Amino acid sequence: MTSAKDGPIGVLLDVDGVLYVGDVPIEGAREAFSELRELSAGVRLMTNTTSRSRRAVREHLLAMGFDVSLDEVLTPAAMAERHCRERGYGAVTVLVSEGLREDLAALESATPGKPTDAVILGDLGDGFTPEVLNAVFRAMMDGAELVALQHNRYWRRADGLALDVGAYAAALEYASGHEAVTVGKPAQAFFLTAMADMGLERGIMVGDDLEADVGGAMAAGLPGVLVRTGKYRQDALKARVTPTAIVDSIKDVPGLLARIYPPGAP
Questions:
Q1: Do 18 and 30 touch, CB atoms closer than 8 A?
Q2: How many other CB atoms sit within 10 Å of the CB of residue 4?
Q3: What is the mean pLDDT for each group of 10 consecutive residues in the chain (266 residues)?
């Protein structure tokens, strides 16, 4: 099998739908995760969640038996904070769940009723009301930049598929005529930042979302592996993305590494 001595390889993993669904680990995921850590030169967990902080994501994984450090968990919130800081935004409206606010606490909040430089949009669940969406639309029409924490169209909750942030961001883009800045998957910068964080150039991405996980990674120059767990749907394969590989679950990924990066390959 491929190992770090054959050339450093990093493994990027989606979380929900790849390692677990809800509060239940996918069969064999813990063992596969441990094996991937041994076979690779680094692992990063790239979640598009906009309802949990990095700390909460790690605690959830630890509770299910996954040995994960905080540094290994990457979320769009950190990318959003950096994006706003680099652009010098002095007033930012943050529309995310309460659980995520701790990751964006460094940003200066806009004063209600005053102009805002940017609106950070995450998962609001049932808080995606017409009033909230109209307020964001008006801010965009007044010049605010929409920073979408991710652009997933839907996700799988315990009660079934549900609209995700990308669906609402797309509606706001259409209405305002202004494109949102996406900082989570499938933004190429998210994948490149994860690889740079490990100091590696070669790696793979494993996910259950053909467009956000696989398509985003492949656009960033990384092999993309699609798993048939989580929100995987057969009809999604009609999209204009051809995965590097499709496997039944993360259990199959350790054995796939050596085929994607044969030992001794440059």
A1: no
A2: 14
A3: 60 96 95 96 92 92 96 91 91 91 86 89 90 96 95 81 91 96 91 94 95 94 96 73 94 94 72
